[in-house]
């Protein structure tokens, strides 16, 4: 496997960002956005629209295009060579000409598959040497949620590739040479049970029995510190011991390995959230802060996704530190906040804290008019509830992703299912179903697992297995029904039922179920989006736009953001706002997990707005993913009233898309 010359110009992304020219690292620009822009363009490998770059890096800016021009001016000296212009920009697009520019991340992405299948240990070491840390280690960009979402995805992707390379290298090496590789693997994947067992086995096979005993103790302690049941890990260690009698005896006498290998049943656990009474400066702010705190606790309880400490208990803990208060009620998360009045508005500053360390997991600010703060549908409390719930689930999901599948409880298996179900591929949808089935087997009363399983059948009927649509609709309905039986007050169960009823074209019943989900929990963004999805096609387009806006407000980084934009697009088209509809259709198609129908919405809406060049460009991208796509597939997927169907039929004809 050929390595690059040291004198070649390189962009290094697998660790802190570096740009190397003639073997020397160039000074980095102080602007985080300039560095973020360089990384994004280097990874893109194609022209990126200025509009896309502005949306990526400037959530709120007076002149995003002007700021982009400034960033490009700072980027050019880093990228352009002495005799070559690599940063190519015109009025619409920007790209980095990468033929003479080596990007370490692209090299790893392009060569890992062949190295895993047929590469030598030297090939694997060469690729692993490119990793100096996490992808863009140390870089974050405030108020740029789209970039942060992209960055999180890249970090997970290259973390997985690094883990696979280390696993393969450890297999190829002799036992005495595996130890350091396995130690590195554990740092990359700290809760991969197989890596811990392999390290203990390698130490034992190398006659390093004392180190093996220490490693057993350290591994078990590490699992316990994260609340992971180490029983199966102990059992695996015991099995490894039995393969070598003398080491096994030494380990069983001097460590905490349970040689019986008995594994207790895995039980469900939901994290506990303590919402501390919010603070305020003035007396009226203190009183109002107490009311908002009560509304947030009530809203979290209605959402029924995590366990929430009651207001009476939370108020009695006021004044105590997060660590002391959390210990009193065994809470894994503590939320605190401050309410300030500014003229006719309120600003709430919220923090989600890890009580053991005092580390802030997440912080955000929410605002509303004073008149709205204490109405029946409190938008301030709803935004706070949605934000806290989303962040807790992200943390729980990421912890579950680091755990070996065999040790998952129902809650963790559910989160592994959720992590897969929003990727919209047949393979990931099947993996999601496996995890949801496991969660149900571990806890048949956990309604969220049924809702997730129903969603996977919805996706099969809608886009992934359309030839088996009727069977998948029946499964979506039955699993949603099981969820309702387990917990009729769970908004997610009503959400799943509403979507399944829409598939069956029982539109009135679908709206009834989704309305019930929003009544049970006004903070449940998925229910608001699904209402928008139904109304935009067969109901009230104004209500569809309103529901889509509510969903986006409650969950601005939602994994279904492409579909939220799609529902808004349909509603705007039916209201005659074609230009605005085209903007949101394109935003939807540009989301990283947008499925094929979302891309088709962009093609047809852009054509309806007369933006034919852009429509043809999006059509080329769609055809690259699914060459045989036609208008009948689009029409079969949605339940379009005549007004919307006629608009899209004309657009399809203008684009020469086959029926």
From TrEMBL:
<dbReference type="InterPro" id="IPR019734">
    <property type="entry name" value="TPR_rpt"/>
</dbReference>
<dbReference type="InterPro" id="IPR011990">
    <property type="entry name" value="TPR-like_helical_dom_sf"/>
</dbReference>
<dbReference type="InterPro" id="IPR005158">
    <property type="entry name" value="BTAD"/>
</dbReference>
<dbReference type="InterPro" id="IPR051677">
    <property type="entry name" value="AfsR-DnrI-RedD_regulator"/>
</dbReference>
<dbReference type="GO" id="GO:0003677">
    <property type="term" value="F:DNA binding"/>
</dbReference>
<dbReference type="Pfam" id="PF13432">
    <property type="entry name" value="TPR_16"/>
</dbReference>
<feature type="region of interest" description="Disordered">
    <location>
        <begin position="244"/>
        <end position="263"/>
    </location>
</feature>
<feature type="domain" description="Bacterial transcriptional activator">
    <location>
        <begin position="103"/>
        <end position="241"/>
    </location>
</feature>
<protein>
    <submittedName>
        <fullName>Tetratricopeptide repeat protein</fullName>
    </submittedName>
</protein>
<dbReference type="GO" id="GO:0006355">
    <property type="term" value="P:regulation of DNA-templated transcription"/>
</dbReference>
<dbReference type="InterPro" id="IPR036388">
    <property type="entry name" value="WH-like_DNA-bd_sf"/>
</dbReference>
<dbReference type="Pfam" id="PF03704">
    <property type="entry name" value="BTAD"/>
</dbReference>
<dbReference type="InterPro" id="IPR016032">
    <property type="entry name" value="Sig_transdc_resp-reg_C-effctor"/>
</dbReference>
